[in-house]
Each structure stands twice: as C-alpha cells, then as structure tokens.
Design brief:
There is one protein chain. The chain is of the alpha+beta class. It folds into two domains: about 200 residues, no CATH class; about 180 residues, no CATH class. It contains 16 helices and 14 strands. It is elongated.
Length: about 400
C-alpha cells in the first residue's frame, strides 16, 4: 500500500506539487512570524542583560529592594576565591552604580553613573567597541565616557567638563568635576540617553565608598547555565549577600515578554485557522478530482477501508514532505535576518524606542521553532485529511462513476 500511495502521488504531479507547496508556505509563514517575535526578545535579553547587566548579580543583602549606597558591599569581606571556584563562573566584575545630578552651563539632568573597570567588563561596556568619539579610560584615569544621547542633551564634546552632585555613603555629599574623554553609543536606547561611565576607583572616591561596591556582576562561562551557576553560588561563601538572576532583577521584562508572547500565540492561532482552510481546500479539490477513480476502484472489489487508508497515506506523505521542505527552506531566512536585522524607521522606530528597545527586527535560529510549527501543521494536515476518509467511506460507486 505504501508503494501504491507513492505511485498515486506522482500520477498527478500538478496536484501533488500544489499540496506540497501549500504545506510548505504554511510552515514558512508560521516559522518566520514566530522567529521574528522570539528573535527580537532573544536579542533584547542578550543585549540588555547578557552584555550589559549580566545574568547574575551579587549585592549586599537587601540592596536591590532599597538601592541605597548605605547597603554597598565591603569588598574586603567578600570571599572572592570561593565564589570564583564555583563551576561556570568566569570572573567577578565590581561596579559602583548610583544616580547623580549633572550640570553643564544652565542645563541639568539626572543620570545613571556607573563606575567600571573596562578591562574586565562585559561586552556591552567594553569601551573600545562602543566609542564613536574620543578614547577609553584606564584604571586610574580621570576622564569619563558619556552616552551619545547625554552628550547631545548637554551639547558637549570631547574636553568639556560635567559637574556631578549627589548623595554618597552614609549621607556624605558626592560631587566632582570630570572632563569628557569619550562619547559612546549604547545599543539600549534608555542607557544611551542617560549613562555616564567613569573609572571604578574615581566613582568609589566620589561616592565616599572606598573599598566598597554596589554590585558584583558574575560573568559566566560561554556554555554555562546561569540558573545552575546561580544555585551553586547560593550554596557557596555568600553569607550576607543576595545573588539574583536577571529575571528577579528585571521582572518588567518578563511581564512584557509574556504579554507579547500571548499576543503572538493568538495571532499564530488565527494563522493556523487560515492554514487549516487552505489545506482543507486542497484536500477537497483532490477528492473531487478523483471521484470517478474512487468509484471504479470500489466497484472492481477494492475495500473502502483499504482505499481510505491508501488515500490517507498519500496525504500524510505529501504533508510530511511539504513540512520538511518548509522547515529546510526557511532556515536560511532565519540565519539571514539573525545577522542582517531589519532596521525600523519613522513612527515605528519612535514607538519601539519609547519602550527602551533597539528598533531592529531579528530572527532566532533555534530549530525548535521550525520543528514545533512543522509538527503542528503536519497534524493539522492529517486531521484535515480525514475529510477524504469520510468521503470514501460514504462513497456510492455508481454515482461516483457518473460524476
């Protein structure tokens, strides 16, 4: 019967090609739609979390809820060696993060100040890669790097000085004047509007936090699972410290993803309904064309059950072929837009930037999406093919041969 089904498929090449093409395009549409949705979030998480803030952060217990400099860590009391000994931990990155009021001329603006050591930082804060003007700073330098949006707001350039005024450790006044050594373009729109980067030790001194830090970012090894590493760190020398995953640090991102994914699932469900009717139309066309053939086969003695099984087998082979071709054909599309994202412009760009996202559309290259949607469409095709089985089981040979 398998051989008979295979011969029946290619006995009418046009009809078979139409069926395969219908399934193939259904798979392509579903996979491309979902790939863009998942890809945008993957890139956002990788960019904002993985490259800038880290998947794991260590703070003094209670710091994240309060975020007061009075809850900064005493670095001399942190057992760094024990933390570094945990499998999957690559390095610990100290940071001094706080807010300050910036002055230049008659303009003022509240900004995020981040004291870093660029030699050990995550990719998103390695200054040599993000500078558009000027230079980076070294460990003991006295210049700062400001984000592109902040430089435009103050209308400043290289060599201009910004004044800082804020509150430091135990209520001390945090103030300073630093020349601009470089201007950087941050991929995250919100950071690009307000971030100031300065040498870690200068930030410690300005905020009266000598030998202290607000954050230790845990840089994990490339193939490590941050959840496993986080669980291991909590069981190591972390008394008096809180170890938080990015999902705890940025719950609003998770909520936004869940809302967006729910909307995507609704849209994909509507697409599946459209796909179902497309496939049903193809099956109805096939049954209508073969009415006479079915009537002759039944009249010369072929059992309806066997005929229905062979017809179902034909449809399964066609649908499976279309699904496999669709999953294969769409793969280069996923890779292309992964590394060549679509740049948004106009009102769409402005709307996306309002939510602090990069205005670009990426795809994901995960094969799980291809497999999931290929499988779903395959089962939809099999379900729709039952129409042919029902029609064959109700077949009247004489009427079929007359039609």
């Amino acid at each position: 019967m398998l051989k008979l089904a295979w011969r029946n498929i290619w006995r009418n090449k046009g009809r078979s090609v139409i069926t395969i093409a219908a399934v193939m395009f259904c798979v392509i549409f579903a996979v491309v739609l979902r790939s863009f949705q998942v890809g945008v979030w993957e890139n956002m998480i990788h960019d904002i979390v993985g490259n800038n803030f880290g998947y794991l952060q260590i703070h003094e217990d209670g710091f994240w809820a309060d975020q007061s400099l009075d809850r900064t860590m005493d670095l001399s009391a942190v057992d760094s060696e024990e933390l570094l000994a945990v499998d999957g931990v690559d390095r610990l990155i100290p940071r001094m993060e706080s807010f300050s009021l910036l002055y230049h001329g008659s303009n003022t603006k509240g900004s995020l100040v981040m004291g870093i050591d660029p030699a050990v930082e995550l990719p998103g804060l390695q200054l040599d890669d993000i500078l558009i003007e000027g230079r980076s700073f070294s460990r003991d330098d006295s210049v700062i790097v400001v984000s592109e949006g902040l430089a435009k707001y103050f209308n400043v350039g290289l060599g201009d000085t910004l004044l800082f005024m804020g509150q430091g450790y135990h209520g001390a006044t945090a103030y300073g004047a630093f020349p601009i050594g470089g201007i950087a373009r941050m991929t995250n729109p919100e950071l690009n509007k307000q971030l100031v980067l300065m040498p870690f030790h200068k930030a410690q001194y300005m905020y009266n936090c000598t030998d202290r830090a607000t954050t230790l970012v845990v840089a994990i090894e490339e193939d490590a699972d941050y959840e496993v590493v986080g669980a291991a760190l909590k069981g190591s020398g972390a008394e008096g410290l809180e170890i938080l995953e990015w999902k705890e640090l940025f719950p609003e991102i998770i909520q936004t993803i869940e809302v967006d994914m729910a909307g995507g699932r609704i849209f994909v469900t509507i697409l599946y309904f459209i796909i179902s009717f497309v496939l049903l139309g193809t099956v109805i066309m096939m049954v209508a064309e073969r009415q006479r053939e079915f009537g002759i086969l039944v009249s010369i003695g072929m059992k309806k059950t066997k005929l229905a099984f062979v017809t179902l087998l034909e449809n399964i082979m066609l649908i499976m072929g279309g699904a496999i071709v669709g999953m294969a054909v769409v793969k280069p599309v996923q890779f292309y837009f992964k590394y060549n994202p679509i740049d948004l412009s106009g009102q769409m760009k402005e709307a996306i930037e309002q939510y602090n996202f990069e205005p670009k559309l990426y795809t994901t290259t995960s094969f799980i999406i291809n497999l999931n949607h290929g499988t779903i469409i395959f089962f939809i095709g099999v379900l729709v093919s039952l129409y042919a089985v029902v029609k064959i089981m109700k077949l009247n040979p004489i009427e079929s041969m007359r039609s």
